[in-house]
Structures are given as C-alpha cells and as structure tokens.
Amino acid sequence: MVNxxxxxxxxxxxxxxxxxxxxxxxxxxxxxxxxxxxxxxxxAGYTGMCLHLRDYRAQRIAGFGDTEMAALLRDHGMQNISxxxxxxxxxxxxxxxxxxxxxxxxxxxxxGAHSVNVGGDFQQIGIPPEQMRIRFAALCERAxxxxxNVALEIVPFSNVATLETALFITDGIANAVSDVSTYGTDMAx
Length: 189
What we know:
Elements: E1 13-14, H1 16-20, H2 34-43, E2 48-52, H3 53-61, H4 66-75, E3 80-86, H5 95-111, E4 115-118, H6 129-144, E5 149-154, H7 163-170, E6 176-182, E7 185-188
Parallel strand pairs: 1-2, 2-3, 3-4, 4-5, 5-6
Antiparallel strand pairs: 6-7
C-alpha cells in the first residue's frame, strides 16, 4: 500500500466551513460576503482558502466573475486554493454530480486550485469499496487533466468511515489524498 502525505510548506488553509457561517452539508451558501471572508482569512494569517462550489456559484450568479474573485484572493495573499465538495461522484448517471465536477474544473482553472475535496456515500446506497475504488480512480484520472489532487474525506457517517477504507480506495493513485475530516479542521494524509 502506497501512503503519501500532501504537504504545502508553510501554508495555513482556511476550510470553507471554518469561515462560511454554515454547517457542513447545508444547502445554502455562506452567510458572509466572499470579500469579507477572504479579508478575514488573510487577517487571521491564512495563506490559502477552500472555496465551496455552492459559494462559487452564488458569487457568479451575483455577478462576481472569475477574474474578480481570483484578483481578490491574490490581493489578500491567498496562494493555495482548494475546492469542495463533490458528492455522488461515484454514481454513474447523476447529472448533478457531473455538473458539479464540470464546475470544479472551471473554478480550478480560474483560481489555480491544487485540490478538490470529495465525500463517500453519505446516503448509504450500498456501493462496495471495490466499486468506489474503480470510480475514484476514474475521477482522479479526469482531475489530473486539470492538475488537481482529489482528497477523499473520511467521515464517520459515510461509507468511507475509516482510514483503512480510505487507503484502500486511494492506494496507488498518484493524485489521491485521504482527508481526515472533523468539523472545522482537516488533515490531509
């Protein structure tokens, strides 16, 4: 089994839920303006941010374009950008998941993001780990074309509830990362 640690030297990345004012899994965008969150993160010493796809979409709908968002991040010293959250990426014909993946690649291009966080089966549909591994490898292959690592979050109420399961799914995939997730803190392995 290959274990690798994703490291970004001297970097403190603010997770989207740390500063958004909403709990993970909420179906609404952040309570605070994007510009305020970026400024607050910079003031607190962060040099990177994780941007949730629903917030990215909300900013675009509000007329805040990719160029303006990228400039705001850059002007506040946000050098390391990650994206979240891809759910149901393992379902073959889920159009919402496919749309989220396409949006991820758009945002990655706009901001030079280095990774995207994805989750396991939160609905407990019953996808076996072997099938998750095959579909995760395919997702990682697509993401690699956009220079993205894929961080699989280990969450106790999903089918990726243990480090052992996550390592089985991610083993041997060059751009795969296992992400030990607790609310408000993340540690990539």
